[in-house]
Design goal:
This protein is an alpha+beta fold and about 475 residues long. The protein has three domains: about 100 residues, no CATH class; about 230 residues, 3-Layer(aba) Sandwich (Rossmann fold); about 80 residues, no CATH class. It is about 20% helix and about 35% strand. The protein has six helices and 29 strands. The strands form eight sheets. It has a six-stranded mixed beta sheet, sandwiched between helices. The chain has a five-stranded antiparallel beta sheet with strand order 14-18-17-13-19, with no helix packed on it. A hairpin with a 5-residue loop joins strand 15 and strand 16. The longest helix is centred in the first third of the chain and has 21 residues. The radius of gyration is 43 Å and the shape is rod-shaped.
Amino acid sequence: MMKPTLVLFIALLTMWGCSKEEFASTPKSEKYTANNVEVFQNLTCSNHTLVKPPVDILYLVDNSSSANYLSTTVRNQIALTIQSLSQEFDYRVMVAPLLSDGGSDSFRPVITNNAGAMSTSVNVVAPDSATFFGPPQGSNERGFERAYNLINQNRISNGGLVFRNSAHTLVVLVSNGNDNETSSYLNGFPIVNQGAYDTAKARFFTLKSNLAAQQFRFFSMVAHTSNCRSGHFLGKVYIDMSRDIYLNEQANDQSARATKDSYDLCKDEYAIYSGVNSSIRQEIVGHTYNKWQVSTSTAPGAIDPVDIQVTKLTPSGAATTLNINQDFTCCSTGTNVDTRVLPTSGEPKTGTFIDLTFAGRVSYPDCLVVRTRTPTEYYGYAVAPTRPRPETIVVRIRGANIPQSTTNGWSYVGYQENQNIKVDVNGNAAFPALNRTGYFIQLNGTAKYASGDTIELFYTPAPL
């Protein structure tokens, strides 16, 4: 009779063998779709820098005997106009009397918002500390000559300390009379001495040339009608000079005004500085680039150089295609890489860049449209999480069966830990790596799958 212990042992062996065979015979399948190629299109534009333009102003205020007829309101408003000067300018304002008062014209007070850039010898004063009205000095008013002499004497290129080369040079003249050198009065109406007037105008044109001024303007605040108030006379030659110099500048900021650059003292037109402010053409310094960021990623191979398309756009909408290896090369990566070369190197960015050749450089205000895509990735392995019976393996890529072949199909490798499954078109390891652990089936020859492809793996697990 068989012992009970031996019977139990045989029964257990039989049960274990059945369970093992049952579990091993259950077919399995794995399915994996590789990431699709991503396409990106970005429009970015070049930048610019707004520079405070240098603005030099000579402010001449009437101190002739007729200035006594200027009301307290007029005097206060004229002093306030200077506070309306745009802070977007790097300005210097020399304040001087219209008629010389015997003081030194080389040390007239100057109002500025950039005192640190001036010589310490200059008498810099706050706007509310400037004296705009001195005691009357007679009636021989020679406004054009006075304006020319003060600027010429105080220009830096002539040994002075105030008026700069290549600045916007402006004269602002306030008077309730007329220039006595270029005009006279007959029965209260001005008669122009045309020869003297033309000479004065020519001197201003020469002064502009000597200063290499960005522009030269002559603003006047004078009476536009005769005897509109007691002591006020039509300032005809001042009105004419404002107009003629404005027209010589070929400016357009006063197109809506009948009297270009001249404001009517009779109508209390104190907004003369609105005209001054609008006359300044803001300086824009465009940036030029030799690198252009196309991705914020610094990973090698983030962009496929074969399929990059670059188009330059102008503000008018004109489009120009940039050619790879002629106008740009692709691609480089880096951290805090300077992208511009002018006006200085700068604008550091991090990521992937195209490198612009000299012919392909981009300058303000142009833009670039860059169309890129991620590279096509190839995979040379399928991975099963459990050990398969090799004779049961079926591999399908894009729905098609792949034969077993060591040259152009699949072959079983076996268990691998942290093995890179990415390859290049030639079957060599590709990076950045995509590591997997499991039972590897190698894909040989053309039997690889790529970005967007689906691979299916069918097999029966091997016995435990």
